[in-house]
Amino acid sequence: MKKIHFNSLLFFKSSKNEYGCLYIGKKLFFFLKNKKITKIKIDNVISVKTEKKFIFYNVIITTETGEYKLVNILPGKSEKIKQFLEYCINYELIKKEFRLFDSVTNGTRYVYNSLNREILNRINNSIIFKYENLPFDGNKKEECKKYSDLYKNYKQNNELVVNENNKKYTENELKKYKEFFDKVESEPLTETQRIAVITDEDNNLIVAGAGSGKTSVIVCKILYLLKKRLANANEILVLTFNKNACEEIGERISERTDEIPDIKTFHGLGNQILKSGDNKKSLSKIATDDFAFKNAIKSIIQDNLENDDFAEIMKSYFLEFFYPVPNVYNFQNEGDYYNYLENFEIRTLNEEKVRSLEECYIANFLYLNGIKYEYEKTYPFECGCIYKPDFYLNDYNIYIEHFALNKEGKTPNFIDCDSYLKGIVWKRNTHKSNKTILIETNSRENFDGVLLKNLRKKLAKFDVEFRPVKKEEIFKKLNNAKHIDGFTELTSTFLNHFKSNQITIEKLYETNNINIQNADKEKEQYQVLKERRNRAFLEIFKTVDTEYEKILKKNNENDFHDMIMLATNYINIGFYKPHYKYILVDEFQDISQGRALLLKALLKKSGAKLFCVGDDWQSIYRFAGSDISLMKYRFPQI
To answer: In this structure, what DSSP letter does residue 217 have?
Structure first.
């Protein structure tokens, strides 16, 4: 009799007729064949099965070199023999499974999300449950039972077990690498910074304020990965948003090691990726020079003013929609309203500072139609107080008063409605007694989109002559007042957001319409005004975007946004195959939708882990289409 080792299977054969018997004791079995031992290596076994022969059973062991039969086994014993032999065959796999499980429960390995899912999947499909009631005694039976119970506990108390393991891991690493963390930077890292470096989730987002050592965390993370050999230098990618950050991180790494990872800007990475494909376009000069970019947008706007349709849309925008539309009924007091006026300094095309957006619309309408007016000219008749109607039309001796009354005939909250209504009656009586002409307009007309249309009709009744100002004069005035520059700034910023977030004009129109449909009834009137303003801007922007793309196409060029989008496509279709294990992103708050999609493609194709550092209060690249909501709310989706 010889002890069975779990990497081999020993038995004795019977006579040439293969009659014999098999005895299984405590991890032992033996078989007689001319008193000679036959040895079969576990690694050579292909399968074990049973077959019935009359009232007995044979156990058939198929190996790479032949087939062996354990014959004439008593009923009820053959399945136990088969189960035991299968356990012997699978034991190396089982031991590997045990080692993995030990490493993720005793604090020697960090359990990140995808590893946890893998472990749970392995447990669900584990063969150990087949052997938890083995038909033999000894240590291996106890081992099977032990791990079977541990597996069940891992599943039932998963979050608790994983958190406890990761806590142990972090404590061990803090002790093991204390000297490293003390000396890696000029000042020892704080405990929070050390934990941030040690944490090894699939996706890591470190949020910290300005001046809190975010770059130190990036540098130390790289050095920690290299020191632990979790990745080679060429398997680490560091992404930044400007060359200065690249240079700073590179210098700080090179001062401490000769192993330098790939450190690139997003645009530098995009350019490298495009070189791996068949891209023939160069990078546009206006993409690399903000001043040149804005000048290009301004030229597009000015050149298109020669087109009467475009000029009319522009005129309409500056007449009615140049300033953002506030809900004046949200202002709780007069101070809040006047703060709004101070912040936006609402001025007419004649550069008059007016008291409301609707008064600005009226003043601009009068100017654009060549109707001379004076704003808040003192009423010349004695009326017991100083009375200044909103507008006086010099050539027609007509006064215009605009009243802040909504569809329900109510004033904004910061105005006493009863006193205001009494004031309206007083004004009407004053004009009536002095036989002066008064034309009235109100906020309800503006909500309904008929303010200026109705004003035109009311003026026409008194034979007011309309002499539209030439468009050249209008845009000269807008230029002189720097309004075109301001609009260029707005359009340039919007174009960056539009392209970096990879959306379409159609999608913008659709979103604008959905906002109207979902508007609260009480706010609907202001939502409608915003929708009209948005739509007016989109009509202009559509032309600007089309002309901008024509310039790029004509010059066979890409801008940065095109480059990021094309690079993402190259990764997705396999032109570029990333090889990274870790991707680190500095100043993650500056991420845009386009860059996020590039990052997502890199992660998907490489299986890399993501480590991001950012400050949700600070974004210096919002002008370039960065989207802080991606950091706050959508990070888990990347």
So the answer is: H
**Cβ-count burial 98-117 (b if 16+ within 10 Å, e if not):** beebeebbebebbbbeebbe
Q: Which of these, 218, 238, 221, lies nearest to 583 by C-alpha position?
A: 238
Q: Which residue type is seen at 234? A: N
pLDDT tens-digit map of 67-102 = 777 767 777 777 777 777 777 777 767 777 888 888
Torsion 344-348-352-357 (CA) sign: negative
* Paired residues of 283 in beta bridges: 558
Judged by DSSP in three states, 205 sits in strand
C-alpha angle with apex 285: 279 to 290, nearest 5 degrees?
Answer: 125
Contact 297, 271 (CB under 8 A): no
Identify any residues that bridge with 53 across adjacent strands, giving them in sequence order: 56
Beta bridge partners of 374: 392
- Give the chain's radius of gyration (CA, Å): 40
pLDDT higher than 50, residue 9: no
pTM of the model: 0.71
Specify whether the CB–CB gap between 455 and 462 falls below 8 A.
no
- In angstroms, rounded to a whole number, what is the distance separating the alpha carbons of residues 229 and 286? 43
What's the one-letter identity of residue 312? E
What's the mean pLDDT in 151-155?
A: 91
Q: Report which of 593, 608, 601 is spatially closest to residue 572, judged by C-alpha positions.
A: 601
Cα torsion 373, 375, 378, 383 to 10°: value is 90
Does residue 277 surpass a pLDDT of 70? Answer: yes
Strands 374-375 and 391-393: antiparallel
CB 62 within 8 A of CB 45: yes
Taking the C-alpha atoms of residue 37 and residue 580, their distance in angstroms, rounded to an integer, is: 53
Task: Report CA-CA distances (Å) from 121 to 94, 99, 109, 162.
Answer: 15, 16, 18, 15
Q: Would you state the structure tokens that stand for residue 339, as one six-digit string?
A: 């703060």
Are 364 and 470 in contact by the 8 Å Cβ rule? The answer is: no
Q: Are residues 70 and 58 in contact, defined by beta-carbon separation less than 8 angstroms?
A: yes
Calpha distance 381→384 (Å, rounded): 9
**Residue 326: strand, helix, or coil:** coil
Percent of the chain with pLDDT over 90: 50
Q: Residue 408 has which token pair?
A: 């329900």
